[in-house]
């Protein structure tokens, strides 16, 4: 079969993915703030209300708990709601509805009722915005049983993973790397690249494994490029899924290189990076030449935008960790 | 349109505390609806209340004897609850909080399904498809108000309102208390349901105490006035009068199913028992207050009405005997109830396959088996 690839930015790949999901199943409905005529503050739902109607692309009152709680009720009625949370730092008013309701209701019903609800959250820094607009809340959700948590880093993954998230029968926290919304990539609309919860090697290398997710993958690829010029071969693993984590490619890479750096924008304490480090130590201990090192945001609130470049790990901080992991 | 049907000094009632029918300028339209209740319907309402009261008392005893982890008594609030339960039509859905045992019973939830939640055997306990739309209890206060709204939005999106067929068009009832009215989710449900004209009726039971805090702390404005401010058709009723609860509940559910948007019923009632078996009401309220409300007991009230309607005492005695048998069944069932299999920890956390949890389930099974092999 001939493949059809199209260049598009991540934001447009998400739009196209949701359009395909909505066309395939009229139970797929979108709920959120400003997602109708405006197309969302990032324009990810651009044109969808005009195409599918205001009854399927629903501008809600401005209340995040109301959005998620109502989506839960819609799921009970047989719908597949896709909620848009406007920014990462605005998800917390919905926290109870996500972690105590949505995450646990399938179990509470002993499987008699399913909750195929997707919650899209643009997350992460690098956009120079005011407080609450640049956070990385993934650990809260990855820690919560009953949720699935994923984050695409490429346009192709964005196009396919949003559809897979909508098709699945469990709640999915879908974290969108907003700093990379306008990064273009090839999208192959003929075939999915693989299952939703699969981690992949984004760049092959032999000396050090770099592990990350979302926008951080772009930083890791940049660091690997620089390292190559300095004679160090870095492999980059894109986690794609944060809950569950597909460990096999991560552990296999760690076994090949013996040295691992895991990087994330989120604070490091009790984070996805901590879980990656711990699991590699458990499963690849005899292959390791050095402890797994973490590069994270600091254990401090996300700073004013003037300091975001200091707070967020960049290629230099990743390369510093590469130097340290090589020094063992 | 007038959102408030009446500005009254007293809540609407059709039966006074002695069980006598009340007629005043505001009651006639409600009597017209309540008159649909046959004497058999009224006896069935009484039966549901009497059985629930007996199970309630037995469950409290079982908790005191260490057989239940907790019990949530509904004593005193059965009147309004049975009224709105009978107001629901077959195709309707109810989202209870955790104190609506009469409603759960009327819709078909088995007593042991409720008991299982409180003896620590399950978190939910029933499939709403088997209980005529009675959803499971919700313990985080007012969260179910949003679920009810979403479900009602879905009904409207399905086109299952406003066709004019009251036997097909659907409506949703959500129940909570005066304490819950302070939760953001309660207000968000009022906003969303009005915005989307969802067929949702809120039954707010002002039982005067949110554990130890009086309802005056929740709101200095009567809550039916607050709901009117959200644009809901709003009513203030005697929550210990099954007939007014039926009449207003039926009218509101039918208006909602007709596509007229959401309604709100504030019920003036009283939690005669403790908040839960862990509570001690003597620390925050007077016995004089409790006694004043015991004189307004909904079961005695409807019994007096039934006698006045010519129902024989023997029939009421038979209900008490049936209730004693039901309570004894619940006791036997509770004592015989075993522990669920440990697989329950893992099963149904996810619907689709989930490898890490499957591995943990297997590891636990192997760990448990390792003791058997020693």
UniProtKB/TrEMBL annotation, chain A:
This is 3-methyl-2-oxobutanoate dehydrogenase (2-methylpropanoyl-transferring). Gene3D superfamilies: 3.40.50.920, 3.40.50.970. Pfam families: Transket_pyr (PF02779), Transketolase_C (PF02780). Keywords: Oxidoreductase. CDD domains: TPP_PYR_E1-PDHc-beta_like. Residues 8-183 form the Transketolase-like pyrimidine-binding domain. PANTHER family: 2-OXOISOVALERATE DEHYDROGENASE SUBUNIT BETA, MITOCHONDRIAL (PTHR42980:SF1), 2-OXOISOVALERATE DEHYDROGENASE SUBUNIT BETA-RELATED (PTHR42980). It comes from the Bacteria. Its EC number is 1.2.4.4. Its cofactor is thiamine diphosphate. Signal peptide: none annotated. It is an enzyme of class 1 (oxidoreductase).
From TrEMBL, chain B:
Its cofactor is thiamine diphosphate. Gene3D superfamilies: 3.40.50.970. This is 2-oxoisovalerate dehydrogenase subunit alpha. Its EC number is 1.2.4.4. InterPro entries: Alpha-ketoacid_DH_E1_comp, DH_E1, THDP-binding. The keyword Repeat does not apply. SUPFAM superfamilies: Thiamin diphosphate-binding fold (THDP-binding).
């Amino acid at each position: 079969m001939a493949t059809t690839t199209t260049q598009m930015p991540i934001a447009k790949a998400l739009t196209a993915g949701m359009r395909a999901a909505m066309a395939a199943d009229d139970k797929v409905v979108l709920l959120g703030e400003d997602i109708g005529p405006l197309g969302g503050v990032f324009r990810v739902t651009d044109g969808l209300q005009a195409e599918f109607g205001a009854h399927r692309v629903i501008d809600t009152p401005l209340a995040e708990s109301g959005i998620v709680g109502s989506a839960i009720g819609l799921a009970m009625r047989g719908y597949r709601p896709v909620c848009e949370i406007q920014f990462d730092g605005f998800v917390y008013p919905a926290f109870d509805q996500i972690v105590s309701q949505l995450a646990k209701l399938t179990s509470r019903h002993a499987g008699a009722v399913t909750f195929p609800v997707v919650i899209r959250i643009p997350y992460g820094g690098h956009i120079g915005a005011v407080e609450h607009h640049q956070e990385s809340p993934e650990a809260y959700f990855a820690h919560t049983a009953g949720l699935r948590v994923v984050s695409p880093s490429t346009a192709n993954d964005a196009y396919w993973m949003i559809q897979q998230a909508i098709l699945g029968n469990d709640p999915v926290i879908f974290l969108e790397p907003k700093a990379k919304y306008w990064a273009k990539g090839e999208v192959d609309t003929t075939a999915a690249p693989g299952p939703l919860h699969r981690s992949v090697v984004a760049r092959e290398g032999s000396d050090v494994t770099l592990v990350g997710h979302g926008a951080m993958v772009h930083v890791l690829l940049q660091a690997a490029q620089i390292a190559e010029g300095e004679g160090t071969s870095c492999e980059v693993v894109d986690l794609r899924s944060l809950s569950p984590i597909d460990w096999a490619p991560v552990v296999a890479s760690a076994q090949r290189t013996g040295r691992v750096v895991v990087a994330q924008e989120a604070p490091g304490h009790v984070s996805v990076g901590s879980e990656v480090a711990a699991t590699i130590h458990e499963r690849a201990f005899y292959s390791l030449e050095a402890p797994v090192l973490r590069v994270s945001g600091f254990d401090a609130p996300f700073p004013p935008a003037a300091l975001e470049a200091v707070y967020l790990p960049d290629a230099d901080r990743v390369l510093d960790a590469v130097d340290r992991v090589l020094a063992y | 349109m007038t959102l408030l049907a009446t500005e009254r000094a007293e809540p609407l009632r059709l039966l006074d505390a002695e069980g006598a029918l009340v007629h005043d300028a505001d009651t006639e339209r409600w009597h017209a609806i309540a008159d649909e209740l046959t004497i058999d319907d009224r006896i069935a309402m009484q039966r549901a209340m009497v059985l629930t009261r007996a199970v309630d008392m037995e469950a409290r005893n079982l908790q005191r004897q260490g057989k239940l982890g907790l019990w949530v008594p509904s004593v005193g609030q059965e009147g309004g609850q049975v009224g709105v339960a009978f107001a629901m039509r077959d195709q309707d859905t109810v989202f209870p909080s955790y104190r609506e045992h009469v409603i759960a019973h009327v819709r078909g939830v088995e007593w042991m399904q409720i008991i299982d939640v409180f003896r620590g055997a399950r978190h939910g306990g029933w499939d709403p498809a088997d209980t005529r739309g009675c959803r499971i209890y919700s313990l985080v206060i007012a969260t179910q108000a949003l679920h009810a709204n979403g479900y009602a939005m879905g009904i409207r999106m399905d086109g299952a309102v406003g066709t004019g067929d009251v036997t097909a068009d659907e409506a949703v009832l959500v129940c909570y208390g005066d304490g819950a009215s302070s939760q953001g989710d309660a207000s968000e449900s009022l906003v969303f349901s009005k915005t989307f004209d969802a067929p949702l009726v809120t039954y707010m039971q002002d039982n005067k105490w949110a554990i130890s805090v009086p309802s005056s702390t929740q709101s200095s404005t009567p809550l039916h006035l607050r709901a009117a401010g959200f644009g809901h058709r709003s009513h203030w009723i005697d929550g210990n009068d099954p007939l007014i609860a039926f009449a207003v509940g039926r009218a509101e559910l039918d208006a909602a199913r007709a596509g007229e948007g959401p309604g709100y019923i504030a019920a003036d009632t009283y939690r005669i028992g403790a908040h839960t078996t862990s509570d001690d009401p003597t620390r925050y309220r007077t016995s004089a207050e409790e006694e004043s409300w015991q004189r307004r007991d909904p079961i005695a009230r409807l019994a007096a009405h039934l006698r006045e309607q010519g129902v024989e005492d023997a029939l009421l005695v038979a209900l008490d005997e049936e209730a004693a048998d039901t309570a004894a069944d619940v006791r036997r069932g509770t004592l015989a109830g075993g522990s669920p299999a440990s697989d329950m920890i893992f099963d149904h956390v996810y619907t689709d396959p989930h490898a890490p949890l499957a591995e943990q389930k297997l590891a636990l099974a192997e760990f448990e088996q390792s003791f058997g092999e020693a």
